């Protein structure tokens, strides 16, 4: 898939000389909301607080750039990601059945989660 987005964040490991985490956001929402379209940490770098660090940096930047909220979709069984999002302040606002129906997931439902910035 080739796509265009507004903001890309990544974490670069200077010892391993490679990108270890990344996030893609778009600001297409007219109410000054940001959509976190993609967020992930390389498997070998997980469980070390990197996801928390990257997401916290994104939230700080979103505040400074006067955005009102950040929203995202997450698979209902992605307990780790949901736990991380809730830890930094996101809340579940909608349950969306069949959101991932185009992908081979056993239960294709999602939560929409939102973090209000001000
Ligand atoms: C989700 C993901 C980004 C987390 O990255 P990470 O660097 O391992 O996360 P961190 O080490 O910073 O934070 C872990 C936090 O997740 C939460 N968490 C971890 N395991 C959990 C579990 N089993 N249940 C609930 N929450 C959990 C906790 O809040 C934890 O924080 P704590 O250690 O202070 O308690 C990473 O697992 C990943 O890339 N997964 C695959 C891609 C993905 O699912 N992306 C999200 C798509 S919406």
- Give the spatial strand order of the biggest sheet: 1-2-3-4-6-5
Rounded mean pLDDT is: 94
How many domains, as an integer? 1
Q: What is the name of the CATH class?
A: Alpha Beta
Binned strand content: 35-45%
Q: How many beta-strand segments?
A: 6
Q: How would you describe the shape?
A: globular
- By DSSP (H or I, 4+ residues per run), the number of helices equals 2
Order of helices and strands: EEEHEHEE
Q: What structural category arises from helix and sheet content?
A: alpha+beta
The distinct bound ligands, ions and cofactors come out as: coenzyme A
- What would you say the CATH architecture is? 3-Layer(aba) Sandwich
Helix content: 10-25%
Task: Predict the CATH topology.
Answer: Aminopeptidase
Protein name: N-terminal methionine N(alpha)-acetyltransferase NatE
Enzyme class: transferase
GO molecular function: protein N-terminal-methionine acetyltransferase activity
Keywords: Acyltransferase, Transferase
């Amino acid at each position: 898939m080739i796509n265009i987005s507004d903001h890309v964040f990544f974490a670069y490991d200077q010892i391993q000389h490679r990108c270890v985490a990344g996030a893609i956001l778009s600001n297409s929402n007219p109410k000054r909301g940001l959509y976190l379209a993609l967020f992930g940490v390389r498997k070998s770098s997980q469980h070390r607080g990197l996801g928390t660090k990257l997401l916290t940096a994104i939230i700080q930047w979103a505040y400074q750039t006067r955005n009102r909220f950040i929203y995202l979709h997450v698979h209902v069984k992605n307990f780790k990601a949901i736990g991380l999002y809730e830890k930094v302040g996101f809340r579940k606002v909608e349950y969306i059945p069949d959101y991932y129906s185009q992908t081979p997931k056993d239960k294709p439902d999602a939560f929409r989660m939102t973090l209000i910035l001000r």
